[in-house]
Amino acid sequence: MKVSVDMSKCQHYGQCCYEAEDVFRLDDDGKLIYLAEVDESRREAVESAVDVCPMQAISID
Amino acid sequence: MSVAIVGGGLGALRTAESLVAAGYAGEVTVISDENHLPYNRPPLSKEALKEGVSAEKLEFRRRAATDGVAWMLGDGVRSASFADRILTLDSGRELAFDGLAIATGIRPRRLNVPGPISGRHTLRTIDDAKMLREAMTVAKSVLIIGAGFIGCEVAATARQLGLSVTVVAIDQAPMVRPLGFQLANELQRRHESKGVKFHLGVGINAFLGEESAKGIQLSDGTEHYADVIVEAIGSIPNVDWLEGNGLDLSDGVIVDSSMAVVGITFPAVAVGDIAKYPHELFDEIPRRIEHWNLPTETGRRAGKTLAAWLAGDKPMAEIVNFIPTFWSDQYEYNIQSFGMPGLADTQRLSYGSLNGPCVVEYFRGDTLVGVVGIDSVPQLVPYRNLLMKRE
Ligand SMILES: Cc1cc2nc3c(=O)[nH]c(=O)nc-3n(C[C@H](O)[C@H](O)[C@H](O)COP(=O)(O)OP(=O)(O)OC[C@H]3O[C@@H](n4cnc5c(N)ncnc54)[C@H](O)[C@@H]3O)c2cc1C
Ligand code: SF4
Q1: What is the Cα–Cα distance from B255 to B264, expressed in whole angstroms?
Q2: Where are the domains of chain A?
Q3: Ligand 1 pocket check: which of B15, B18, B31, B33 to mutate, most ligand atoms within 8 Å of Cβ?
């Protein structure tokens, strides 16, 4: 599945990282980095990340 | 089998999603007095107020699994009879249910002082935000009553829109209840450096004006006028429709750690801003906390509880391990908090300096109960786990 984060919305809160740490991570400067292509088996965790993003910046297909 | 979810906000949406995910296959009806599908409220005092309110942009993504949910919008629940398990709507319609989820949130509290009622804005819904934005775009000045989250955020947004801003509050410093004086005084300094004027530690005697409020008289006798007046003095839980069923509704709806309503014998849960329960990582005192992450946490749990209960197993309560989390954007500053800093008796600056990026730790006795950071998201990351691990 495809994951994308609207970087004009993302405030780098890192809430998504707690739900799917293999997909979303804050780098040493506190900027979000994420995988754009994620195995279908991780859908539940990624959906949870979408739910908890305060800026509602994450979309998936 | 049918479940009625009353209230159409974030808590209602998450409850519907988790109910379906837990294998419940009966009917689900969400009933809301608003005319919108669940949408995100935090932008209403921030980006949306600044840039324009679009219902479409604010609407939450809804999981495909909830396509079968029926949304009954624009018709509130007026009353409920637990004995008959029937809801009566504002339109007079009746709806029977087997399981109930209470997700009606809160509404803004109003000041009960003399003077006109009209001309006083509050901010909770898309419609409120549209009206406030419309008024602010043609105004030169705004007077904000209340220096909590919403008051401070509206103040920041109004300054960014170029209005002159006065904040009046009974508190001694902005957001002092969650932040404590150290950070609250600093927050005040930052607002003042952006041009906000504060009158703190004062009450309100009356609203001034003929038909519509044009100003206020403070308890110190001074009078203040502005083009726009906003009341942001806290909230009242929307429990009215539950009256007459023997519940304790003095401050929201009391639930156990599985979100099952205390005092109801049929399957019933409550979630989000209206739910009151002990946050067991901190103490055993039931509290109602209005933070955005909690409708999701409580909704996820409540859906599971309801599904199991309707299938015949009243679920076992698990410990409440949610960490209340809030953020607040004011000007270019980003304030984020984990835990319950409001419980603390001492504070300690642990990173940065108060007038720049910083992290403040909050202790009750020698136990860490919360942390607040300004522009310090990476430094805050370890704290969530620290708070989770508390005995
Ligand atoms: C302007 C604003 C800014 C915010 N900013 C932040 C922030 O930065 N950070 C943060 O952590 N939190 C913030 N919050 C708080 C957060 O938005 C709330 O905690 C969250 O919306 C609560 O969700 P809920 O589902 O419990 O209640 P709500 O979203 O209030 O949903 C309740 C719904 O029930 C409906 N309803 C009420 N009574 C009835 C009835 N009798 N019948 C049918 N329907 C009814 C209401 O109209 C409403 O649609 C903010 C809130 C506001 C208003
Ligand atoms: S939760 Fe949202 S805002 Fe926060 S880092 Fe993830 S995508 Fe960005």
Answers
A1: 10
A2: 3-60
A3: B33
ipTM above 0.90 for this complex: yes
Task: Write out pLDDT tens, residues B247-278.
Answer: 999 999 999 999 999 999 999 999 999 999 99
Structure tokens at B239: 């429990």
Q: How far is CA B153 from CA B160, B174, B192, B199, B333, in A?
A: 11, 11, 14, 17, 11
**What's the average model confidence in pLDDT over B20-46?**
97
State whether the beta carbon of A46 lies less than 6 angstroms from ligand 2. Answer: no
Determine how many CB atoms are found less than 10 A away from the CB of residue B36.
18
Give start and end residues of each alpha helix (H) in B228-292: none
What is the pLDDT, as a whole number, of residue A27? 87
For residue A11, give the ligand 2 atom closest to its CA.
Answer: 3
What is the CA(B338)–ligand 2 centre distance, in A?
16
Mean pLDDT of chain B: 96
Residue B149: closest CA among B175, B179, B168: B175
A1 CB within 8 Å of a chain B CB: no
| Among the partner residues A18, A28, A30, nearest to B377 by beta-carbon distance | A30
Tell me the domains of chain B and their CATH numbers: 2-44+58-107+236-310 (3.50.50.60), 110-231 (3.50.50.60), 332-388 (3.30.390.30)
Residues of A whose CB is below 8 A from B378: 14, 26, 28-30
d(C-alpha B293, C-alpha B142), whole Å: 30
Q: Write down the number of H helices and E strands in chain B.
A: 8, 26
pLDDT digits (tens, 9 = 90+) for B202-224: 999 999 999 999 999 999 999 99
- Are B377 and A28 an interchain contact pair (Cβ–Cβ within 8 Å)? no
What is the pLDDT at residue B390? 56
What's the whole-model pTM score?
A: 0.97
Contacting A residues, span 19-38, partner chain B, CB-CB under 8 Å: 26, 28-30
Question: How would you class B151 by CB atoms within 10 Å of its CB: exposed for 0-12, middle for 13-18, buried for 19 or more?
Answer: buried
Interface residue of B18, B50, B61, B372 to substitute, partner A, most A CBs within 10 Å: B61
Tokens of B272: 């989000």
Least confident segment among A27-31, A54-58, B150-154: A27-31
What is the average per-residue pLDDT within B169-182?
96
Let me know if domain A3-60 sits in CATH 3.30.70.20.
Answer: yes
Check whether B391 has a pLDDT greater than 50: no
3-state class (DSSP) for residue B123: coil
